[in-house]
Amino acid sequence: MAKKILIVDDDPDMVEATSLILKSMHYDVVAAYGGVEGLEKARSEKPDLIVLDVMMPDKDGYVVCKELKADPVLCDIPVLLLTAVVSFISTTRFSHQMGMETEADDYMDKPVEPIELAKRIEVLLSRQ
Fold first, then answer.
1. DSSP string of 65-77?
2. Are 124 and 116 in contact (CB under 8 A)?
3. What one-character DSSP code corresponds to residue 21?
4. What angle is formed at CA 29 by the lines to CA 25 and CA 35, rounded to 5 degrees?
5. Which domain holds residue 13?
6. Is the separation of the CB atoms in 51 and 5 below 8 Å?
7. Phi and psi for 119 in degrees, rounded to 5?
8. Domain total of the chain
9. CA separation for the pair 112, 8 (Å, rounded)
10. CA-to-CA distance for 95 and 34, rounded, in angstroms?
11. How confident is the model at residue 102 (pLDDT cuts 50, 70, 90)?
12. Which CATH number is 8's domain given?
């Protein structure tokens, strides 16, 4: 059975591009377009891994990650944070330090290279 990956990002183009990459690798992909929806989908879908954007308007990825890791049912799901924080560090409230304070299992800067994303996902899934 294929592993299920939840992509949480408020950018529909990023969700579509990431979904295409992951589907080509034979993963089942579920999408959510914000932090609140992402938490709901995590609870209902029980994915094997979550690819989580940081900068989202309704609930940012740092908060979502903390909530996931505090939930006894969801805490073992690997979380890969994807973010453009580096590009916006001078104009945003988000920082690398905030990312380090989460319990995310890995962290990648956008834009991501598909091959690198695939490698990171495979490593995280192999740890389960």
1. HHHHHH-TTTTTS
2. no
3. H
4. 135
5. 4-126
6. yes
7. -60, -45
8. 1
9. 15
10. 19
11. low
12. 3.40.50.2300
